Structures are given as structure tokens and as C-alpha cells.
């Protein structure tokens, strides 16, 4: 809506620490991110948060002082903007600006509909905080990505930093289905993505991606993205360390001709123990490329086409914080690269000669795609293919390694197939699905959120 204020939503949840709200002397649970790149408490509950701007709001899961047990639906009485909405971009705070869809309809985020004025651009990756997963989600807005009404997200200025305004055009409103938490299904030539997640018993990070694009370089470019600090008191994240930056997305040229090694490193705050780094997406990059994951501490090298995950142990000092500090801390401050030696790295070796056929592509006997949607509730679809006829099984396992479902167990002819898992009677959480065929197996992970 246009002209929205703190008071607009205070009928749905308790607002404290702001003049005119409850407990005005307490820490504010509604925070604005201003044009100078700083967090600020609104002057009073009548303060407008700004058309096209985002805000941070902490919810209390109780019934005290006008609070309601979660989940809570925010609503607003008023009219949406009748014309394009212009937002001032932050030159401070490393160029991050917290924005949001100002319209009542869904919105397409590609450059045609989110235009920038000034001498520079905004990065092609945009940030969403996924509280259900406890992780930032990075999405490529150029596909385009379609967001829901009132969805807040971060944009970042390009390297030059000369852009001044971002315009949400009314032409960007759409009735198409929101892309949601999933990667776009649009097919675009000459682009590939290896997507990673790092999980433990108490942490989850999915804002990790190795991208290959036509216009990318080995320097910092529009398809790179910094690593934002999670909105959690304790967290464990993985990122790339290149160009003296700690990144969530490392982009490289699609026509890569030389072997490249990309450093990676964890940053842990209050989370220790066993971690698993998972990856998928090899169907989107040239089949002749070799990718090897290195753990220099244990002197382990992993062929990333053969294995789809790597387990390791790491420790960090414990940390305890006031939960509201996530609203007053450096939310849009990118994490810095470490000066110490890196434990992890990935080496990409592009194909240069034929490896068995005219195209130089390696022929696999079977393949297993990432389930879609992911995360899901309650059903998801798994696509797989068989180059040769044979016995195939697809089973579902929980994080304890217990089998919870068997979806396929039969002989399949050559071809492509899909199978659906309905998890209506299954608890929320992380699950693994495994394809066994030809004496080998492929395992991928998925998230059920109810």
C-alpha cells in the first residue's frame, strides 16, 4: 500500500519500543533501514516506512500485550501506489538497500521492471531471508524472478556504486505464479549453476552458488554476490573467498578455458560439530568439465560428479545474544574474508579434448534431478532418467538414515521418468532421496516445511 505506517500493522501484532506503541522504553521490534545505510527506530507509530522500502519486524509467539500466537497474518487497509515507485539506493553499507514489492499483485524483478538510474547497475542476485530455513536465499532476478506482494528483499549496488534510484514499474505487476522459494524453470542458453547447502543438526545455509554466465569474469561482476550475516544469534555459513571478498555467489565465464581454483571457507558463530556440504546442478554445465572439492585440513579430494556431498567436523566458540539484537546488528553488512589460510576449495577444469564421443561429453547411465518444488509442502516431484534399461530404486531417508518411503523399485526401460512423493503424514525437516541403479547411487537432499 502507499503511505503505510507502523500503526498500519500494529493491530496484527504487538509493536514495542516505539512512541505510541507498547512498552516504549523497551528495545524496538520494528526497525527501518535508512538511506544512509543505518538501522533506526521509527520516530513514532505514525512514521511511514516508505513505498518500495522494506522493514524488519520481530514477532512474539505469545498472547501478551496484544500479541497473538504464530502464525500471524499482516494486513493493511489502504490503496496501492497508482504509478511507478522510486526508491533511493544506499551509497553506504556496501551498497545494500532493503526494498520491497510495493504493489498488491506479484511482481517481476528483471531489469525491465526494476530499472536503475545513474551511472551503475544493481547486482543480478537479490537476497531473501527465509526464516523457516534459517538461511538467506539468493535468487537470480534476470530469469525473471516473480515475488509476492509485500515481499521484502535486499538489492546491492554494482562495483562502481553510481546508481542513485531504483524504480518499481507498474508494468512489472503480473498475475503469473510467484517463483516462491524455488529456482526459475526458465531455460536460458549458456548459463549453469552449482547450488550448495551446508547443514548441521542446528544450522542451515543455502546462499551458496557457483555460477557460470556469458558475461561473467574472474573479477567481481554483476553476477557475483556478497555474503550477508544471517538474522540468527548463532549460525554456520559457507562462502567463497575471492577478490578479497567473502561471497555467497562466485560467477565465472561460461567459456572458461583455464583451470581455476576457488577458495571456500566456513564462518561459525556458536555452532560446532558435524556438517554436510551438499551440491547439485551438474546437468546445467558442460558434461566434460571436471570439478574437484578439496579439504586441505584432511587432505581429501572429492570428485563432485561422483559424490554429491561432503561431511566434515568444525568447531566454534559458543555465543549467546539477545534475540532482538538481530534487528539492531549489522544486518546488511557483508561478511569479511578471513586472512588465515583456507581449509576448502573447488578446482574447475574445463574440457579440452574428447572423452569418448564427438561432442566430448561423458555419457552417464542414469541421472537424478533436484526435486521440485524444494522446499515443499506436502508433495514434490523427482525427475530421473535411464540411458540403459535396468533395475532402479528410489527411496526416502530421514536425517537419522532411516528409510521412510520407497517410491520406485522396478526395472525401467531407457527414458526419462518422474515420481511424486506425498509427505502429508510426515514431519517437517530435512530428508534425503537416493537413486540406486547399475551398482551405483546418487543422493540428494530436500526440505519439507509444514
Explain what you see.
The strands form 8 sheets. Strands 14, 15, 16, 17, 18, 19, 20, 21, 22, 23 and 24 form an 11-stranded mixed sheet that branches. This protein has a 4-stranded antiparallel sheet with strand order 28-27-30-31, with no helix packed on it. The chain has a 3-stranded antiparallel sheet with strand order 2-1-3, with no helix packed on it. Residues 181-189 and 352-363 have low confidence and may be disordered. The protein has 3 domains: 85-174, no CATH class; 191-349, no CATH class; 366-448, Immunoglobulin-like, CATH 2.60.40. It has 450 residues and is mostly beta strands. Helix content is 2%, strand content 42%. β17 (235-242) and β18 form a beta hairpin. It has 2 helices and 31 strands. The longest helix is centred in the first third of the chain and has 4 residues, at 6-9.
